Amino acid sequence: MMEPVTSDAPTPPVTVLRPSRAAYTRAIKANLWIAVPLLVISVVRVGLNPWLLPVFVVALGLTFGGVLLYFRRARVEFGGGRYRVVDLLGRIRSFTATEIGTLVTVISLNSGSTAPPAPQLILTRPDGSRLLRLRGQTWEVEQFAALADDLIAHGVVNDAIVDPITTGQLRLRYPRVVGWWEAHPIAFGLIVGLGVLFLAIVVVIAVFFSTLAG
Predict the structure, then answer these.
(1) Which residues pair with 6 in a beta bridge?
(2) What is the predicted pLDDT for the residue at 7?
């Protein structure tokens, strides 16, 4: 949703971009048919143990709370070559077009997960580090176009990636934008899975010995 805002002061009009609930709904629907069966299988295999149910409740609460905060507070404001980004915690970052290294517009980024490919808009600093990253799962293409047009109009160099690209390939081009874990989702998933398994084994052993001691 784009909201043109004008101020009484003699300053350029400011455009406000907010996360798109429609885009978020589409992303959720695209993943539900995979996520729900996996969740059901996990619950059936593990069982609703007394210690597991609170974990699920807390996780769901944090997830929905974070989503609500994101749509309530997050936004991008721009006008006259000045940009202001507000995150879900209300923290504000401001910068100008001269502080931007490159505008990267990705038409179709494949994350390698169950999520379908989606567009992204990325801003880097002159040293190649990430300044801003907006994902197509929660923003509309029209919003990307409006922001990109303003950036280009104020002299920011645009690297337009029109062909489909994976996170691994994007990391090769912008190593300070895409993390290792995102470029290697399978390996990262295995590491996390082994970590959880190890933790579960430690908990079982600790409970076993505490039972013997009692």
Answers:
(1) none
(2) 46
Give the strand pairing for 158-161 and 102-110: parallel
Cα dist from 166 to 106, 129, 139, 149, whole Å: 10, 19, 19, 25
pTM of the model: 0.72
For residues 111 and 181, give the distance between their C-alpha atoms in angstroms, rounded to a whole number. 11
Pick the CATH number of 2-183 from 3.40.140.10, 3.10.150.10, 2.30.29.30, 3.30.420.140: 2.30.29.30
Cα end-to-end distance, the chain, whole Å: 61
With CA atoms as reference, report the closest residue to 156 among 147, 143, 164. Answer: 147
Instruction: Write out pLDDT tens, residues 52-98.
Output: 556 666 666 666 667 777 888 899 999 999 999 999 888 999 999 99
